[in-house]
């Protein structure tokens, strides 16, 4: 089941004019499900989308207009999860021995949520049978690798230009811990790997800006940041990465995965957040205005 119907693996939207030391990343909002993938799955189309961070890319679509490039996966998380280590492979999913060096014992793999997921986020198995090993090579080389190559290049280029960079890694989360029951989660969780992926003043400012717009903001629990935050975050080297987990109930009908009628108003709040964050960047990333001519670039 090698699908070749995705087209480009990601969408990269660059600023038309101006440029800031800010990158917006949406790794789980891809919503292209080719027929061959759907036919190989035992799930209906709606259930297959349970792991998708639906429409998060739309919430932040104004970022390039404000000077921040935006990278968004076009393939779904159920196909390849780029917020996983490349070698996090589930031995129960494939019909042969895994490549040497595979990390098959991580907590995420054991939960069925490796780089090629075995289950969707509510625990239902995606496939009716094991996948051929050639799927590993195909998906990693044609989807995972290009996405991370693009993200790494954005980070490196921005850091070289400005001296430092802030990456917002944008996700969504279920409104409640399990099956829409129990206590509702906060509106947004800001993850910084407990201080290791971004400077504290940056994390605090992002939380404050979101709080000023009426969002209930928590930090790190239960989402401190995944592979992208952990792998790329290096504050001492000028790379600050924050994971934003947005409560889906703010803008989405979680059962039907359809936008709420007030989606435009919620998106406007995030646009205001981005605008205020952009205005705060010179103070947050002082290296950004220490190099001549960059502010007018």
What tags apply to this protein structure?
9 strands; seven-stranded mixed β-sheet; 30% helix; 297 residues; alpha/beta; single chain; 8 helices; disordered C terminus; two-stranded antiparallel sheet; Aminopeptidase
Sheet with most strands: strand arrangement:
1-3-2-4-7-5-6
Examine the coordinates and then state which fold CATH places here, giving the name of the CATH topology.
Answer: Aminopeptidase
Overall tally of structural domains = 1
Structural class estimated from helices and strands: alpha/beta
Q: What order do the SSEs take from the amino end to the carboxyl end, as H and E?
A: EEHHHEHHEEHEHEEEH
| Mean pLDDT reading | 92
The CATH superfamily title: Zn-dependent exopeptidases
Largest sheet: 7 strands, mixed
CATH architecture: 3-Layer(aba) Sandwich
Helical element count? 8
Q: Which descriptor suits the 3D outline?
A: globular
Strand content: 5-15%
Q: How does this structure look, described?
A:
Helix 6 (200-212) runs antiparallel to helix 8. This protein has helices at 35-40, 45-48, 56-59, 107-110, 134-162, 200-212, 227-232, 263-284; strands at 10-13, 22-26, 70-73, 165-173, 188-191, 217-219, 239-247, 252-253, 258-259. The longest helix is centred in the middle third of the chain and has 29 residues, at 134-162. It contains 8 helices and 9 strands. Strand 5, helix 6 and strand 6 form a beta-alpha-beta unit. The chain is α/β, with parallel strands linked by helices and 297 residues long. It has one domain (10-75, 136-289): 3-Layer(aba) Sandwich (Aminopeptidase), CATH 3.40.630. The strands form 2 sheets. It has a 7-stranded mixed β-sheet, with helices on both faces. The chain has a two-stranded antiparallel ribbon with strand order 8-9.
